[in-house]
Specification:
The complex is a heterodimer of chains A (332) and B (337). By secondary structure, chain A is an alpha/beta fold. Chain A contains 10 helices and 12 strands. Chain A has 2 domains: 197 residues, Rossmann fold; 88 residues, no CATH class. The radius of gyration of chain A is 21 Å and the shape is globular. The radius of gyration of chain B is 21 Å and the shape is globular. The chains are: A alpha/beta (332), B alpha/beta (337). Chain A: It holds the Pfam family ABC_tran.
Chain lengths: 332, 337
């Protein structure tokens, strides 16, 4: 079996809410029991709407946040309890690219300094050649090394963010909305760059994004999140072409397609995502679901193999699975 | 309503120029554009950041800061709006022409209930009692799909979700039955399932009231779905305009074609690589001669010097209707690749 780079086991992340002392303590259940495996060479797309917990999960996976419960394994080692200095070897394997390149680059540091920071954190002094090679890898020229972030466009800044993440030669890049701040024409450049880097360096990605078309372009496998849980997971082609969970189906049908006259058979969901402070009992999606029945309120459905899925499910399955009592039938 | 002249434009803009006076000199943000929209129709203005699409609509509304110089004609039902004194313009703004902004949270006042804010928009243009205005506000909140509107009217903006806030802003825009509604990226800040709700709402509103809609968007998916006509802007100028089918099926400008190729699609298996447009959009005013798209264009070598020396004007393309593109390349670009 291919090497497991990342293995999240029943990960939960609750954020405590500070309220008045006489009130019952509340917490936001941002991530509420997620299992996810990322293997070498694959790109996993993590999709969901705002508040689904996808960014929090990405931050737990990169150990930028401590999970409230559950296990984080990176490269087969349990790193859940690893802290501080001892996290450095972990960070060499897994790096993060952030959404807003404006906010994630220090405006007072030159590109050269920005790129050498991860090296220095690992106790290495990078040579100029190493830094120039990094820049070239993301399609930027040598002369940019002395420049400062404000001198770059959004797309170029995102390239710098990617170069910085690549500096320690990680196996896995976790990209949190890497293109959502970019114009369409520039977004395509960055998506192609991510694909090229995967082919050249054998990188794996976790791609967190709300834009389902962007994720389809690059991901091999998709995990759909809703209110802190994964409601559907599977090979990209299967999830996009034959979504089994009603939420996935509605979500996909809501995406407008750049072709006039295409009939989309749209399922328009009513209402908004419930608050993760007090999620619904049973299935988290039942309050907006067009298929909900009484049983949906009783117990939370677990991920189970979808009928017609090509692979058999085991604990470490990569087959198509959905957490629903009434999954959509496979297309005939 | 089948009355003659229904398709005559309600809003016409001719040769609109907007120049900002800055410390670094004049910046031409909009450099001569024309557009028109008829009752019940939707015109989409698309473009990337810095293309001038938002500035154009703000100019129509007379909402630009004092360092902006606006020239050209803005005709509402034949009446010139550009240069009208402030108090005259205020009678029209929010009444005949209303606007919906991208960020509903900053378009609402956090100190007042949403009902009060919608009612105030009504009272500004109608001499009615507060009670009547409040009733009107509730009617509109109900119309835009706020559940339990009479009770929710007493809530404050922070008590609403993003989608519900955008509904409130739309209610406020519609309260005076405007003839033209300008929506500047109305769904960009929203989740896709909520976006679907809001686009459906705008569609219903248009069908019911025959409102002319100008939709400003960077999302070609949304545009394909709702627009009748499309204006593609690049660097403050019109790159191409035509019906939605002209633009999506018979794109005549290399920039339009590039944008379409750069859009990943959710409904078909992915292409191995997305088509990209090299480089980035120019800053306004940085390209003064020739075609503003020329430095990024893959077809320049087909034309030669003209792209650098001569500014292309919108010229008609073969086919029906008013399909026009500003490109020296006389033929459809994709045929050449």
């Amino acid at each position: 079996m291919t090497e497991e780079l990342l293995n999240l086991k029943d990960v939960k992340k609750y954020f405590g809410l500070r309220g008045a002392p006489w009130r019952k303590a509340q917490s936001v259940r941002a991530v509420d029991g997620v299992n996810l495996v990322v293997r070498k060479g694959e790109t996993v797309g993590l999709v969901g709407e705002s508040g689904s917990g996808k960014s929090t999960l990405a931050r737990v996976a990169t150990r930028l946040l401590d999970p409230t419960q559950g296990r984080v394994e990176i490269g087969g080692t349990d790193v859940t309890k690893v802290r501080g200095r001892r996290l450095r070897p972990v960070r060499r394997r897994i790096q993060m690219v952030f959404q807003d390149p404006q906010a994630s680059l220090n405006p007072r540091q030159s590109v050269g300094t920005i790129l050498s920071t991860p090296y220095r954190a690992q106790g290495i002094r990078p040579t100029r050649t190493q830094l120039v090679d990094l820049l070239k890898q993301v399609g930027l020229a040598e002369q940019y090394l002395e420049r400062y972030p404000h001198e770059f466009s959004g797309g170029q800044r995102q390239r710098i963010g990617i170069a910085r993440a690549l500096s320690v030669k990680p196996d896995l890049l976790v990209c949190d909305e890497p293109v959502s701040a970019l114009d369409v024409s520039v977004q395509a450049q960055v998506l192609n760059l991510l694909a090229d880097l995967r082919d050249e360096l054998g990188l794996s990605y976790v791609l967190v994004a709300h834009d389902l078309a962007v994720v389809r372009q690059v991901a091999d496998r998709i995990a759909v999140m809703y209110l802190g849980t994964i409601v559907e997971e599977g090979p990209a082609a299967q999830v996009y072409e034959a979504p089994a969970h009603p939420y996935t189906k509605a979500l996909l049908s809501a995406v407008p397609v750049p072709e006039p006259g295409v009939d989309r058979d749209r399922i328009v969901l009513t209402g908004d995502v419930p608050t993760p402070i007090d999620p619904p009992s049973g299935c988290p999606f039942r309050t907006r679901c067009y298929k909900a029945q009484d049983v949906c309120a009783t117990e939370r459905p677990v991920l189970e193999p979808v009928q017609g899925s090509t692979e058999h499910s085991t604990e470490h399955s990569t087959g198509h699975r959905a957490a629903c009592y009434f999954p959509e039938p496979p297309p005939s | 309503m089948a009355e003659p002249g229904l398709t005559a434009p309600i809003l016409e803009v001719h040769d609109l120029h907007v120049t900002f006076t800055t410390e670094g000199g004049p910046v031409p943000a909009v450099d001569g554009i024309d557009f028109a929209v008829a009752p019940g129709e939707t015109l989409a203005i698309v473009g990337e950041s810095g293309s001038g699409k938002s500035v154009s609509s703000a100019a129509v509304m007379g909402l630009l800061p004092s360092n902006a110089q606006v020239t050209g004609e803005v005709l509402l039902d034949g009446r010139e709006l550009n240069g009208l004194p402030g108090d005259e313009l205020r009678k029209i703004r929010g009444n005949d022409i209303a606007m919906v902004f991208q960020d509903a949270l900053s378009a609402l006042n956090p100190y007042y209930t949403v009902g009060w804010q919608v009612a105030e928009a009504y009272r500004l243009h109608h001499d009615v009692s507060k009670k009547k205005a409040h009733e009107r506000a509730i009617e509109l909140l109900d119309k835009v799909g706020i559940p339990d509107a009479s009770r929710r009217a007493d809530s404050y903006p922070h008590e609403f979700s993003g989608g519900m806030r955008q509904r409130v802003v739309i209610a406020m825009a519609l309260v005076n039955d405007p003839r033209v509604l300008i929506a500047d990226e109305p769904t960009t800040a929203l989740d896709v399932t909520v976006q679907a709700q809001i686009m459906r709402l705008l569609d219903d509103v248009q069908a019911e009231f025959g409102t002319a809609l100008i939709l400003i968007s960077h999302d070609l998916g949304v545009v394909a779905e709702v627009a009748d006509d499309v204006l593609v802007m690049y660097a403050g100028r019109a790159a191409e305009r035509g019906t939605v089918r002209d633009i999506f099926f018979r794109a005549a400008h290399p920039y339009t074609l590039g944008l379409l190729g750069a859009m990943p699609r959710v409904d078909v298996p992915p292409k191995p690589r997305l088509t990209t447009i090299p480089g980035t959009p120019p800053t306004p005013g940085s390209i003064t001669t020739g075609c503003p798209f020329q430095p990024r264009c893959a077809y320049t070598h087909r034309v030669g010097e003209r792209c650098i020396t001569e500014r292309p004007e919108l010229t008609p393309r073969p086919g029906q209707g008013d399909h026009e593109a500003a490109c020296h390349l006389g033929r459809r670009p994709e045929v050449l690749l």
